[in-house]
Amino acid sequence: MDKEIERRNSSIFVNNMVESAIRIGLLFVLVVWTYDIIKPFIIPVMWGAIIAVALMPLTTKLANMLGGKRGMAATLLALLGVAILIIPLIMVMGSVYDGIVNVTDILQGESVKIPGPTDKVAAIPLIGQKLYDVWALFAYNLEQAVVKFLPEIKSGVAAFAGMLGSGIATVVMFIISLLIAAGFMTHSETMTAAVDKIAVRVVGKNGEEWANLIAATVRSVLLGVVGVAFIQAVLIGAGFFVFRIPAAGVLTLLVFILAIAQLPALLVVLPVIIYVFSYMDTTPATIFTVWVILAGLSDNILKPMLMGRGVDIPMPVILIGAIGGMIAAGIIGLFVGAVVLALWYELFMHWVKMPQQPQNADKSQEAG
C-alpha cells in the first residue's frame, strides 16, 4: 500500500514537473518573441519617457497658461524640440557642404595654393617643429604630401562620413522620441498613476517615493550633464563663430558631444587655439584663447550648481552613475546609471537607518 502511494506521488510529482517545464518554456518563448518585436522601439520609448519626465514641469506651466490644454502644451514643446534639433543640423550640414564645395573648387582649379607656416608654428612647444614640417610639406609639395598621408586621409574621411551618418540617424531617433514624449506628457496623469501602482506592487509601500526619486534623478542628470554641455557648447561656439573659425558648426557639435561624454572640451579647443595663433595677431588670438579656455572650464562651476538639484542624493553619486552608465550603455546610460546608483544609495541609507535590536534583549528572550 505504501509503495503504491509512493509511486502515485512520484508520478504526480513528475507530471507536475513536466507541466511546469512546458509552461516555463512556452513563457520563455513568448518573452523572447515579444522582445524581438518591441526591440526597435525600446530606445525611442525610453528616451521619450526621459524627455517627458524632464519636461513635465514646463508642460504643466505651459498648460496652465493655455487654459489647461495639456495636449496642446505637449505638442508645442515637442515641435520646439524638433526645431532645436533640426536647425543646428541644417547649420552643420550647410557648413560641411560649403567646406566640400570650397575644397572641390580648389582641387579643380589650375593650381592649389596652401599658405606656408610661419615661424610661430615652429615655436610651439613639443609639437611645433613636427607640425611645421607637415604643414610645409602640404604647402610646397602637395602631391607628395597626399601620397604620403593617403591612408590617414582615407581613414579620416571614412570616419567622418560614418560619424555624420550616425549623427543624422540619432537626430531622427530623437525626433521620434520627442513625439513619443508628447504622448506621454499629454496623458501624464494616467501614466503617473499606472507607474505608481506598478512601483508599489513591485517594491512595496516605498514604491511611490522611489518612482518620484527616479523622476527627480532624471531631471538632475538632464540639467547637470546635458544642460551644462549645452551651455558650454554655446559659449565655446560663440567664440568660434565670432572669430570666424572654419567649420565652426562642426566644432561646436563636437564640443557638445565631448561635454556630454564628460570629456574635456579642451580636446577640441587646444588645436583650434594653435591654429588661431598661427595666422592671427597676438591680441585677438589671446582674447580668443582666454574666452574659449574659460568657457571650456565653466563646467567646473556649473556642474555643482545644477547637478543634484531637487534630489536628496549626493552629487558625486549621481555623477559617478552617469559617467559609468554612459561607458557601459552609451548616452542612454547617463540616465540609467544615475538612477541605478541613486536607488542603491537609498537602499543603503534605508538599511543604515533601520533600528537595530539590542543584543541584551535577544539574550533575555533566549534565557526566558
Automatic annotation (TrEMBL):
Chief place where the protein resides: membrane
InterPro entries tied to this protein: AI-2E-like
Cellular component annotations (GO), alphabetically ordered: plasma membrane
Residues passing through the membrane, by range: 12-35, 41-60, 72-97, 157-181, 221-243, 249-277, 284-302, 317-345
Annotated membrane topology: Multi-pass membrane protein
This protein's record includes keyword Membrane: yes
Keyword Iron: no
One Pfam family from the record: AI-2E_transport
Keywords: Cell membrane, Membrane, Transmembrane, Transmembrane helix, Transport
Subcellular location: Cell membrane
Similarity field: Belongs to the autoinducer-2 exporter (AI-2E) (TC 2.A.86) family.
Name of this protein: Hipothetical membrane protein
Native source organism of the sequence: Photobacterium aquae
Lineage, highest ranks first: Bacteria, Pseudomonadati, Pseudomonadota, Gammaproteobacteria, Vibrionales
